Amino acid sequence: MNKRDFHKKFIPIALALVGGFFVGGIFLAICGYNPISSYTAMIEGIFSRPKYIAQVIIKSTPLILTGLSVAFAFKCGLFNIGAEGQYMIGVMTATLVGTKLSLPPVVHFVVLLLLAAAAAGVWGAIAGLLKVRLGINEVVTSIMLNWIAFYLYRYIFAMPWLHVKELDASLAIQETGRSTILQGFKNTAEGRAIMANNSALSDILKTDLNFGIFVAILVIIFISYLLNTTTKGFEFRAMGINQEASRFVGMNVSWNMTLAMFIAGAIAGLAGILQVTGIYPYRMTNLAGFEGYGNEGIYIALVANCSPIGCLFSGLFFSAIKCGSTTMQSKVGTPSEIIKIITGLIIFFIAISFAYKLLIAKMKQRKESRCKGDDK
Amino acid sequence: MTISNLVLLLVGTLMYTTPLLFAALGGVISELSGVMNIGLEGIMTFGAFTAAAVSFFSGNPFLGFFAAGLAGALLISLHAVASITFRADQTISGTAINFLGAGISVLLTKKFFHTSTSPSAPKLPSVFPKWITHHFERTTFQTLKSISIATLLAFIFVYLLYFILYKTSWGLRILATGEHPAAVDTLGISVPKVRYFCVLASGMLAGFGGAFVSISVTSSFSSIVICGQGFIALAAMIFGKWTPHGAMLSCLLFGFARECTTLFEKEGGLIPPSLLETLPYILTLMALILFVGKSAMPKADGIPYI
To answer: Which CATH class is domain B3-130+142-292?
Structure first.
């Protein structure tokens, strides 16, 4: 990417972020909350302690991955509104494999990861297959599949062989299947001694430290590689830009579309897998409604302009303001819902900013054509 | 199956259908004019909040209902400006509306009522006047009185929209704008004007849908009352092939399945409740697979007209 391209992509997004917070601040002021102290508290909630920073990174993993799932589908010309359902299928399968199979440490996690990602992928591929075979819009099928996944989750959750009544949660995933880092170490005598001496380290170790973020980064690298350097990736992108043309030159669009939805589903499922294997209590919890990661994936993909690497940063950013907002609510009493408004505003400004680019391009064009007219 | 059960089935079906129908009709009119509307969920939430708040403060549910329509139109005007004037990507600005609607509603609820649930507000009256419902008391038909007047309004809107779209020159303009805006433009009709009108109408309808949930199904607003119904309405609109009557049928199918689920649960049976709850969604999928086939999206839907 050359410098000018970078500016073109980066500036509208930066403007949208500033605009979102600015208008959000005005909104806060109208509602009688002090925007400056609210935002200060939010920033403190992100950076002021090592624990907070670790928290932001840990909580960004599912956001990055659902964002990547939606972004990848967008690149292929598909709208994956079903990340929510794929996420739940991921959590569910991971819990089943994590509790019911007994395997050696690393093997267990890998098997769990592959099986659960495959299950979520199949869940996503259903929408792709129905679109390809019967021409049914993937948005409808995905919305229906989300709800089916939700009730399936609740059904499996309540099974007597999985449900623990006292906790109203499922059995915990065995330690061999978890993606945690140093969680065992911090309870040993040696670990406690080290933590007592190093306050920053002990602060970080108190969080649900896990290697989910590294998996997310690996997946991002894989998807970028797939899209930008492989033949299959080229076919995916071609399908996203012009389906008819792809079909015309002999690409197997039907198969590619199903495959793309499989991949998108597997990535969203991965978000769920890493969440349940990496975050305490390592169990399925009782869901009253959607957790919302699917919807969040949509805006994370949009802010990232559907670039896989962009998803990493936009995921981190939104994870940061989410974490910051909880501190804000507890410290100065500003409702954390303001985050939703700010997010909405940011997305709105991004929507308009693309138009600004168009306008600028058009003005330039007009100028050029006028100059040419003068020459004649 | 007794008669009172059948009556209950009818009443419940209509109750689940109405909000979806309002929102789906909103989706239909917007998308037929060529503007995708993925923001139905947010508009419904905002409508539900406005209806509950206005109805609570004024004591007049009708005022709440119409305020919700107005609020819906106000919120969606952002989407209209973005997608029509600024030619934004309509998926993006629609998503923005979803977040804004949810965020503003919950924030204002906390601001006005200091809790996350609004206090109980007066509800919309029954479609039957008092002197008729009086006769229903203690008969098998007594549940009929809980059919809301807004339900009737929703079905009137189906007819109205059908009439406008397919029987008047206005409707022809709207349909043509969604199929081939350039042709409309060459005839001297302003494409943006038609689209603005349709999108604002869509916001109003979805706002009514939200209002129905908060001041007819329940009597208060909280962040979970809408709970995905906007997306179901979106699906119903696509399922109904972008026509008002198609949307009505798919909403009725959905409402019927929902109510069946509720009734079966009460009876208790072989199928565990959480699996039963998937019935409406599986039924819709099945209907899509068996009957619908290729969707008939308006050709210029989602494409800004330059």
So the answer is: mainly alpha
